[in-house]
Amino acid sequence: MRPARALIDLAALRHNYRLARARHGASALAVIKANAYGHGAVRCARALAAEADGFAVAFLDEALELRAAGITQPILLLEGVFDAVELADAARHDVWLAVHHEAQLRMIETTPLAAPLHAWLKVNSGMNRAGFVGPAVATAWQRLQASGKVRETTLMTHFARADEPQAITTAEQIERFDAATRGLNGARSLANSAAILGWPQACRDWARPGILLYGADPMPGEANGLQAVMTLESAVMAVREIEPGQALGYGGRFVAERRTRVGLVAMGYADGYPRSVPDGTQVAVDGQPSRLIGRVSMDMLTVDLSDLPAAGIGSRIELWGRQVPVNDVAAAAGTIAYELLCNVKRVRLDYRE
Ligand SMILES: *Cc1c(COP(=O)(O)O)cnc(C)c1O
């Protein structure tokens, strides 16, 4: 069997959820959109079902997959619904929904529903992507009440720069949110992962932790006690030596300066490992630090075994996980851990309880 796999540590997921909830000091929806950031939404939801206050996904199909798998906790749609059919389905399956623009509000007013909704009214406090602004928030809130179809309204907003401790825009967003929602009844939800860790003023009734559940620190540098949930790993399938001056792989990007022992690894960009990383990107070989050399191919990549004489065919290669932080690989690839984790595909997911 091809040795490429993502090992998912569900105990680490639970540890991180508890940490998020404790840091926030109130309820927390575990954000498991995009197949739980590549970790498998149904398995992650089941692993958290006994303790999570609820879950959040992006859209209805993601929620219905969880309902079909027997998940009975609250589920919030962060994008809300796209049409009246979805709205009726969301009500029938008791799925909570974000309401972030006029068309969604009108849909609620005009669609007959089997059960009253729990709406999450989204306030645009400065990210300028979605939500109602200023006095339009109170108007939308009143229209939800007047529709007779809403049993509860939670007030939410989302931060553009919560991962930057110095950015005053987060404090400004909190102020705008508080001003726009003053006097309106309902729970408040502001904090994503970075705000849970860095902005205690944003910790209100409901947190929405995503990336930190998976152990990728949104504010790298602090010791936050998170545990990596996914270990992306494979093994060496062949070894060869190349001479000084010989080039390795596509484009001949890596040229050996000395006799180099090259390990060929069953993992490529079709598995979600980023093609954009440079020579020197860290990997671990049987627990020893080493480096990627040569371009990443679709199905294979190559690592330097020159200083690891004991390593050979069958040696375990960690691409990211406990030992190699996914944040570091993401930085080497010029992206963020979110994108790498979501892009994992084709490899099998093996779960550890
Ligand atoms: C994805 C998402 C989150 C989770 O964000 P993290 O940075 O992963 O914690 C929270 N809220 C909203 C609205 C989102 O879309």
TrEMBL record:
SUPFAM superfamilies named in the record: Alanine racemase C-terminal domain-like (SSF50621), PLP-binding barrel (SSF51419)
Active site residues of this protein: K33 (proton acceptor), Y250 (proton acceptor)
Listed GO CC annotations: cytosol
Pfam families referenced in this protein's UniProt entry, alphabetically: Ala_racemase_C, Ala_racemase_N
Enzyme Commission number: 5.1.1.1
Residues carrying N6-(pyridoxal phosphate)lysine: K33
Keywords linked to the UniProt accession: Isomerase, Pyridoxal phosphate
One function term, GO molecular function aspect: alanine racemase activity
Annotated substrate binding sites: R129, M298
Purpose of the protein: Catalyzes the interconversion of L-alanine and D-alanine. May also act on other amino acids.
Family: Belongs to the alanine racemase family.
Protein name: Alanine racemase
Lineage: Bacteria, Pseudomonadati, Pseudomonadota, Betaproteobacteria, Rhodocyclales
